[in-house]
Amino acid sequence: MFGHLFINRLKVLLKNKSAIFWTLIFPILLATFFNLAFANLYEDSKFESINLAIVNNDDFNNEHNFKTVIESLSKDDDNQIFNTKYVTEEKAKELLDDGKVAGYIIVNDKIDIVVKSNGIGQTTIKYVVDNYYQVTSVMGNIANFNPEALKTDILNKLNENTNNFNDISNKNVDATVVYFYSLIGMICLYGGTFGINAVNETEANLSKKGARVSVSPVHKFKMLIAALLVSLLIQYSEILILLGYLVFVLNINFGGQILPVLLLTLVGALAGLSLGMFIGVSNKKNEGMKMSILISVTMLLSFLSGMMVLKMKYIIAENVPILAKINPVNMVTDGLYSLYYYNTLDRYFYNVISLIVFSVIMIAISYVFIRRKKYDSI
Amino acid sequence: MTKIIKVKNLNKSYGKFQALDNLSFDVEEGEILGLLGPNGSGKTTTINCILSLLKFNSGSIKILGKEMTPESYDIKSKIGVVFQDVAVFEELTVYENINYFCGLYIKDKELRKKYIDEAIDLVGINEFRKFYPKQLSGGLLRRLNIACGIAHKPSLIFLDEPTVAVDPQSRNNILDGIKKLNKMGATIVYTSHYMEEVEQLCNRIIIIDKGSIIASGTKEELKDLINIEEKVTLELDNLSDKYLEEIKVFKNVEDVTYDGKNLYITYKKGKNNLSDLIDYMKDKKIKYNKVFSELPTLNDVFLELTGKELRD
User: Quick check: is A38 in a domain?
Assistant: First the structure.
């Protein structure tokens, strides 16, 4: 029976030309368009050292560890992040007002960052300072319990972190990859169209086909699981085709880590499918209206992830971080971005787990609706 | 006769609207039971409650001696349902659609193939088996819809207004198919607001209005409930008021109207109504072109019992 359901569902979905266009052909066309549009942006988007001013006061000079970090990141080599000027506070303000630096740092009781706008430079300065605080906090704890260990570990720890920063200063970095990454995120969520369709054709109160299969002697969940598995299979196959096109035809760089990319897009596809299930089952609007809701939500989430305006990703991360954390398109984009930019997998796994949590929540809410066996009205 | 369905004191409301009001009836094995009523009378709601798709407020429903629940898979395997709206996959051909729905009941591929061929023959869509639904006319789509619902040879079939918006040829084909299914042993519950279909097809009829049963029985029994024997129509160009008044007082005459072209006379039960009228016309030398007599219809039954037309 499961085979019968699976094969026929596969036939139905593969013959659905409209769904195949939007979930396979459209993203390939969009990727091609991106590639043509951004071909000349690549050179412009190569990483350039960020102009930074440091207020050269006693507090800064006494904060030896921080000074070491800044000096290390400002060293004129292939891994240089900052182009640092050590100036007075007045001069720092002047440089910022004239737009000659992205921001300046002043050390008093604590390390303060002064900026006038948002952007990659400002985000990077903040990231460095936040990381410094994080590391020194860990070191402080070690110092309380094992001061001897601190002596040997602290430099190594700082060096490790400096290496993290160095990752983003890689001279071959192409910022336009974010457009392609968010496109993949968008396509993962577009798979929700299959999720909407699957629940719509299983629930008696949502469609006539749902009513017809509900009076058959086949358990509803068996039918739904077959439909969802086929949906996931098709959606993931389409994502693999898109990835193949991006890697082999457009030469988009994924940081050379194909297995983590495959895992991330698989959980991304699951997240899209579960979002579709939720939209499909949570209201009684017609299928077209539900598709419109899904596409609108996906476009908005993609926009917030930087698909249309690259800067948006950083603006959201800076000003509404919670939105970046709960946005599944951003989870996919950021996961791919972290594979590309960083040597460590911490941020990647954070995104993978976030996508799994998102999917579980969506499926759990959908289950509340799907478990109904009789309806008030159909 | 075995009672295949037993519905007892069924009540269903949507908020303050009482959709079904204490409905009780049985369906006997081998019969074609017609549920007749105007749109919104509760026919489809009744079917959906029986099929355990809809929650109801109170009452009990038993099919084949067992209480019907959403988990009654053994009962469901013996049921076929044709809903009012066409429910097929646009992406599958005629054959593939029937195969899909039949496959939910019949696992054996060879047996399924045989059943599908028989269903296609029954509804007369053999030459369209490789067509996609969008290539079919409305009538052919309805026939496909029926084939999808009955291909697995169920012993109990629910047909919910299967001929709505269907051309006459397809309608006759569908009605013939239903008769064949019944002859093959299936018990059929047929809902419609077309009284002619119900009269032609059903052994027993239940008339529903506003969620209540207002009458039930064979068509003859239902017609016996009312006081009309026949309705006579005479086509004549001129009739004086004097004659019209004389006709009105004829024996058994219930109602007389004349519109300048046709004279309509409704007779209560009684004998020699038409012959007396023709004798009167001869006697008064009133010329007429055509005369015809109609027996009372289920619409007359509905009109007399509810005070309104069946298709209001």
Answer: no
B53 part of contact set with chain A, CB < 8 Å = yes
Does residue A362 sit in the same domain as residue A289? yes
Q: Average the pLDDT over B293-298 and give the result.
A: 83
Which of A129, A160, A191 corresponds to the end of one domain? A160
Residues in chain B closer than 8 A to A375 (CB atoms): 53-55
A115 and A216 both lie in a single domain: no
Is A151 an 8 Å CB contact of chain B? no
Interface contact B91-A16, CB threshold 8 A = yes
ipTM confidence score: 0.81
Question: Could you tell me the CA-to-CA distances from A236 to A231, A262, A290, A302, A363 in Å, in that order?
Answer: 8, 9, 22, 19, 18
Give domain status of residue A186, yes or no: yes
Whether residue A147 is found in the same domain as residue A270: no
Using a CB-CB distance cutoff of 8 angstroms, which residues of chain B are in contact with residue A373? 52, 70-71
Interval B213-228 mean pLDDT: 86
Q: Which amino acid is at A339?
A: L
Q: What is the pLDDT of residue A41?
A: 60
Yes or no, beta carbons of B92 and A12 under 8 Å apart:
yes
Domain residues for the domain of A119 are 50-160
CB spacing of A375 vs B77 below 8 angstroms: no
Give tens-digit pLDDT for A88-107.
989 999 998 988 888 999 98
Rounded-to-integer distance, Cα A98 and Cα A93, Å: 9
Asked if A15 lies within 8 A of B81 by C-beta distance, the reply is no
- pLDDT for residue B164: 83
Cβ of B101 under 8 Å from any chain A Cβ?
yes
For range B161-179, the mean pLDDT: 85
Write out the two tokens for A269: 């596809």
Domains of chain B: 3-224 (3.40.50.300), 227-295 (3.30.70.980)
Q: B97 — contact with chain A (CB < 8 Å)?
A: no
- Picking from A160, A189, A218, the residue at the C-terminal end of a domain is A160
Asked if residue A322 belongs to a domain, the reply is yes
Q: The CATH number of the domain where A74 resides is what?
A: 3.40.190
What global pTM score does this model have? 0.74
Helices (H) and strands (E) in chain A, counts: 19, 4
CA–CA separation, A266 and A295 (whole Å): 20
Domain count for chain A, please give it.
Answer: 2
Give the distance from CA A338 to its chain's centroid: 8
Give the residue with greater pLDDT, B274 vs B76. Answer: B76
Strand partners, A164: none
| Subunit contact A212:B76, Cβ cutoff 8 A | no
Distance from CA of A293 to the nearest CA of B (A): 23
Nearest CA of chain B to the CA of A224: how many Å? 14
**Separation of alpha carbons A186 and A329, rounded Å:** 6
